[in-house]
Amino acid sequence: MSTLIVPSRYCGPPRSGNGGWTAGELAAHVEHGCPTDRADAWPPVRVRLRQPPPLDVTMTVTDVQGTTTLLHDGAVVAEAVPSVDELLPVAPVGQDAAHAAEATYAGAAQHPFPTCFACGPEREEGDGLRIFPGEVDPVEGRRRVAATWTPHPSLSEDWHVYGQAGRHVALPVTWAALDCVGGWAEDLLGRPMVLGQMTARVDALPEVGETHVVVGEHRGSEGRKTFTASTLYAPGGAVVALAEHVWVAVDPERFG
After folding, report:
1. How confident is residue 180, by pLDDT bands cut at 50, 70 and 90?
2. Distance (Å, rounded) from C-alpha 122 to C-alpha 99?
3. Where are the domains of the chain?
4. DSSP secondary structure code for residue 154 in this structure
5. Whole-angstrom Cα distance, residue 135 to residue 247?
6. Integer Cα distance of 36 and 42 in angstroms
7. Which residues of 65-202 form beta strands (DSSP E)?
8. Coarse DSSP helix, strand, coil percentages of the chain, rounded to the nearest 5 percent
9. 38-52, 79-93, 153-167: range with lowest mean pLDDT
10. The architecture CATH gives domain 2-254
11. Which candidate, 141, 146, 145, 156, places its Cα nearest to that of 206?
12. E strand or H helix at 184, and its extent?
């Protein structure tokens, strides 16, 4: 048994945690045995969010029969399990095209949660991630969005990578970078949503100061649910991490 706190810096809606950051922090507690010989890589984990993660409170993390559970006052906040799903990457977008797309970011002037750690326009440089995805060319009829992201030094965490010291962002920040770009592949203004489930694989931790490209793709809708995917690319075009999401349509005033 261990504990987990979502600091208010990592909010999504104003009163609850960013879904990607919270999911990534819980994913770090999942026991895989010895899945990889790389110090900076994590195999797929699926996290299901059962209720909005509270901010700045101590929650309990337990592991029972392979399910890692986040609890607050005895209620289940989220559950995480190793995943065997094959995650399919979103087709890459060039850095110039991704940067140009940011000018069309739908959340710039109007946003359901403008202080969101990942995509909130009211977050200052060095505080939030400020990932502002705009629409790019679709692939096979699927709507796509893209943005650039250069991790700020305030996000750095010292990791020993291949025997060399490096400055990379932490695992939950990597998950957060994969989060909202998926949501913006849907019409988040016309259909406000929160993250219900996220499955992610991290092949490497993003390096501070390097300009990455993050791409999101709409993959379907069913009732209140929307299905999306996202991929984070390194400057040279290698996949850094990828994710698939299930979003649930909500009334944003309930989370404001």
Report:
1. very high
2. 19
3. 2-254
4. G
5. 19
6. 7
7. 67-72, 75-82, 134-139, 142-149, 156-161, 164-169, 193-202
8. 15, 40, 45
9. 153-167
10. Beta Barrel (2.40)
11. 156
12. none
